[in-house]
Structure formats: structure tokens, C-alpha cells
From TrEMBL:
The lineage of its organism: Bacteria, Bacillati, Actinomycetota, Actinomycetes, Propionibacteriales. This is L-lactate dehydrogenase complex protein LldF. Gene3D superfamilies: Alpha-helical ferredoxin, NagB/RpiA/CoA transferase-like. It comes from Propioniferax innocua. Residues 90-316 form the LUD domain. One of its GO terms (molecular function) is 4 iron, 4 sulfur cluster binding. SUPFAM superfamilies: 4Fe-4S ferredoxins, NagB/RpiA/CoA transferase-like.
Length: 498
């Protein structure tokens, strides 16, 4: 089941991308105009983000060495980045020794093909999935559907998004833009088409909605022969995979199916179990405002008679090597997908996640998407500008990503990319200014021209500037004429020789 332009909300029309993908969503400045009209979505986002960030403040304040933990996480991630080749090989060797089949994928297409080939080799027609940002990034569900394989999301929020023919709008809570009434309507209309229907008279009470989802998913869990997950961390020294979650659906996917395929970005490595401890303290407090995740699953290879007996890990690059090559932008790879930056961002709170045109919205999306996908698309060119540079994201990030520094860096790269072949008028003016300021004789020539212009326009206002000097700012303002006497001329008359 893929996303479509169908909407189940009484609010104004949402963005309508090409079914199943983010293709078709316009650049942020255009997309946000549509999203800002969704008053109910803005209310949902404002309520949810405020609740989560207030809980984060409370839980962080309970940890005396919170800032030291953030610094430790930053340093661990930077060390991984400097020696990523070594840690990846170490992780592969450890996982292989534990009975895991390790695959390497250059891009999303290759990763998707690996997953579908495993399923087809076992004649599997449906799989269950744990919430995974990286498989959203690669459009795995849509690829599997094209191959005749149904992929069922089991995370409650992802289930809401999938049944609603929608797209996720938040890293942690994909259906954050939906309220309980909308969820009830989605369950009532859609559940019966893909499995156990919602009970008659379903209300919008959270308990009833949860029970409806549990009944709908239970039959899928019990008959599934294969599951697909992402991974929050891979411990290089032991080959241990780690997934944290809040509902227990992940634990079901990790224990019941015979085959488990985990698609994991190459940046998710941590060197040792001791290093993992740092992140397990930071992640739940930064994401859900909890002291610890209700479910933290760790598995190291195959155990006869216990859990899946055929384990696969797909290590995905998909542009991460390009990010690592940028000395400034590589800090984005520290991200542990906690969503703290989204919950504090005033732009995200009002614009919503869909305006960013990617599974990664908010500040992390603004710095990660353009680096992963490149700057050829207008969507990615616009994202570094989808920020006020207020710096709130810098303050809450558990791994100290310098968002504002990277945003400014990417803005510069966007301008360079756009003007590489077609220099702008502004660039021409700046080059002229550079020439004028490079020597005293050049500046004197400019002063001479200014003096002549001042004499021509003496006692007059220039008024709105003509093309090509016109701009919105100047069209609304009158420009004064240049002075008829330059500073150099004044100096010669009044000061020289004194």
C-alpha cells in the first residue's frame, strides 16, 4: 500500500506528491504556503511539540552531568567519522562471525533490491516492518509493492500514515500532524481493506484506538515469515544491533519471523558497548522525554531456537560518504534521530514536516537532505534557507550538531552551485566593488564617476531604480543622488597643506 493524494481531513488540501514518493512536492517556499493553511495541523503540531520538549527539559535536568554526556556523544561520533572505514570492517567481521549475512549497498536502489531478492528467494509475499527512517529514505515499501510484496508498518504512528495514504511528517512521531478524530476516521475506513477491520462504533479514545491497532496487527505478526527493520546503533566490537522503541511492535518483529533484514546507515556505528551507554542515556530523554525506552532490543547474531534464524544486515551508504567528505557538513552524521531539533524549531512547528519534501524534516532535514541528495533539485536548494538561524536546535541536540554553522555553509554552497554557470547581477556588482577597493587609484576613478553623477542629479532624487538595478526593496523607496563632492576632493580643499 503506497501513499496517494487522497486525504481524510476536512481541512484544506494537503500537498499532493506523486503516489508513494516525495516526488512532486514543490520547494519549501512554495510548499509551506499550502501547509500554513492547515489550521488543524498547526494546532496538532504546536500541542505535541510543546508537550515533548517540556518533558525533555525535565528529564535532562535530572542528569547532573548532562552537558558532559552531550560532549562525550559528540566526541564518540566524531571519532567514528574519522575512522569509519576501520569500524565498518570490524563490525562486518563481528557480525559475520555471529552468523549474520552482511550486505553493502551504495544507494537506496541497491538496498531495496537486496531486500526484495531475499524475500523472493524465500517466496515471501508479505513482510512486517519496524519503524525505520532509512527505509523511508529509500522508498522500500513502494519498491516491494512493485515486486508483488506487501510491507506492513507495525509502529502505531507509521500504521496511521500508511492506512491514511499519507506521508510521515516527523522523525519520532510520523503521524504528529493527525489528531485522534482523524485517526479514528482512518481506522474506520481503511483497516478492513487490509486486514482485521476496526470495531463498530470506534471512538477517538486512545485506548480504543490502540486496541483496534493491536487487533489489526496481531494477525500480521503471527503469519509473517520475514521482518524488516532499521537500526539505532551497531556496536562494532561485538556486531550487536540495537533498536529502541516504545510500543513492543519492534520486539514482535525481532522475535517471531524466521528471517530478519536490517537496513542500517553506515553512520550508525558505535565503537564499544561502553560507548553505547552514553547514547542510551541521551536518546530517550531527548526524543520522548523518558528516562529510558520501554523496549531496548539488542541482538548479536543467530541463537538456535531463539528468534530469527536467518539474519541479514544491509549497510547503506546512499550519499553518506559524500557528507563525510565535507569537513563542515559531516557533523550532520552525528544525528541519532531523536527529533529534539524538530520539537524546538519555530519553523517546523508552523510549516509541518511535509513541506521539507523528505522523511527527514526540520533542522536535521535542512542540513542532511541537501548533502545526501545533492544540490541539483530546487527542493534541496531551498532547504538550507528554511530556518531563522535562531540556534535553538544547537542547544537541544544531544550530540551537539552545529546546525546554524552547517546551514550557513550550505547556503554558500547553494549560491555557488546556482551561479557556477550563470553569474548573477549581484556577483557582477561584488566583482566591481572588489576591483574598486583593491587599490587607491581604482577607488579614485570610482569617486570621479560618482562626482559627475552627483552634478547631474544635484537637487534631485533618483526615485525608483530602473532595471537592472530594480528590486522589491528599491521599488518601494527613493534613492538619494550621489554627492557632488567626494571625500578626496573635500580633503584636498580643506585639509591638504594644513
Amino acid at each position: 500500500m503506497t501513499a496517494s493524494d487522497k486525504t481524510l481531513t476536512a481541512d484544506k488540501p494537503r500537498l499532493t506528491p506523486k503516489p508513494g514518493t516525495w516526488l512532486g512536492i514543490p520547494p519549501f517556499p512554495e510548499a509551506v504556503k499550502t501547509e500554513l493553511q492547515l489550521s488543524q495541523q498547526r494546532k496538532n503540531l504546536s500541542h505535541a511539540t510543546h508537550v515533548i520538549r517540556e518533558k525533555r527539559v525535565l528529564r535532562a535536568s535530572e542528569v547532573e552531568n548532562w552537558e558532559e554526556l552531550r560532549t562525550a556523544a559528540e566526541q564518540i561520533k566524531d571519532r567514528v567519522g574519522r575512522h569509519l572505514d576501520k569500524y565498518l570492517v570490524q563490525a562486518e567481521e563481528a557480525m559475520t562471525a555471529a552468523g549474520v549475512t552482511v550486505h553493502w549497498a551504495r544507494d537506496g536502489e541497491e538496498a531495496n533490491r537486496i531486500v526484495s531478492d531475499i524475500a523472493k528467494a524465500k517466496q515471501i509475499e508479505e513482510i512486517v516492518k519496524i519503524k525505520s527512517m532509512v527505509t523511508q529514505e529509500t522508498d522500500l515499501n513502494e519498491h516491494l509493492e512493485a515486486e508483488g510484496i506487501a510491507a506492513w508498518e507495525t509502529d502505531l504512528a507509521e500504521l496511521i500514515v500508511q492506512l491514511g495514504h499519507d506521508l510521515p511528517s516527523h522523525i519520532l512521531v510520523p503521524a504528529i500532524h493527525r489528531n485522534r478524530t482523524e485517526v479514528r476516521d482512518i481506522f474506520t475506513e481503511e483497516m478492513g481493506r487490509y486486514g482485521a477491520p476496526a470495531p463498530e462504533g470506534l471512538s477517538n479514545e486512545p485506548t480504543e484506538l490502540t486496541n483496534a491497532a493491536r487487533a489489526h496487527l496481531r494477525e500480521k505478526f503471527l503469519r509473517a515469515k520475514m521482518a524488516v527493520s532499521g537500526g539505532n546503533f551497531i556496536v562494532a566490537e561485538t556486531g550487536t544491533l540495537v533498536i529502541v522503541e516504545s510500543e513492543g511492535n519492534g520486539r514482535m518483529c525481532l522475535t517471531l519471523p524466521e528471517t530478519l533484514v536490517s537496513v542500517v546507515g553506515i553512520e550508525k556505528i558505535v565503537p564499544t558497548l561502553d560507548d553505547l551507554e552514553v547514547f542510551l542515556k541521551l536518546l530517550p530523554r531527548s526524543s520522548t522525554g523518558e528516562r529510558m525506552n520501554p523496549y531496548t532490543s539488542m541482538w548479536t547474531g543467530v541463537r538456535p531456537g531463539d528468534g530469527p534464524q536467518d539474519l541479514h544486515v544491509v549497510l547503506l551508504d546512499n550519499g553518506r560518504s559524500d557528507v563525510l567528505a565535507d569537513p563542515v557538513g559531516r557533523a550532520a552524521l552525528r544525528c541519532i534521530r531523536c527529533s529534539a531539533c524538530l520539537n524546538i524549531c519555530p519553523v517546523y512547528e508552523r510549516a509541518g514536516g511535509h513541506a521539507y519534501g523528505s522523511p527527514y524534516p526540520g533542522p536535521i532535514g535542512a542540513i542532511l537532505n541537501p548533502q545526501l541528495r545533492g544540490l541539483d533539485s530546487k527542493v534541496d536548494q531551498a532547504l538550507p534557507f528554511a530556518s531563522t538561524l535562531c540556534g535553538a536546535c544547537n542547544e537541544v541536540c544531544p550530540v551537539k550538531i552545529p546546525f546554524t554553522d552547517i546551514l550557513v555553509h550550505l547556503r554558500n554552497k547553494v549560491v555557488e552551485h546556482k551561479t557556477a554557470k550563470r553569474p548573477t547581477i549581484e556577483q557582477g556588482l561584488m566583482k566591481s566593488t572588489t576591483w574598486a577597493m583593491s587599490s587607491g587609484s581604482h577607488l579614485e576613478k570610482v569617486h570621479w564617476g560618482s562626482r559627475m553623477a552627483g552634478r547631474v542629479f544635484r537637487e534631485r532624487w533618483l526615485g525608483p531604480m530602473p532595471m537592472p538595478l530594480a528590486s522589491r526593496w528599491l521599488q518601494a523607496r527613493d534613492a538619494e543622488p550621489p554627492p557632488s563632492e567626494t571625500f578626496r576632493a573635500w580633503w584636498r580643499t580643506h585639509r591638504e597643506g594644513k
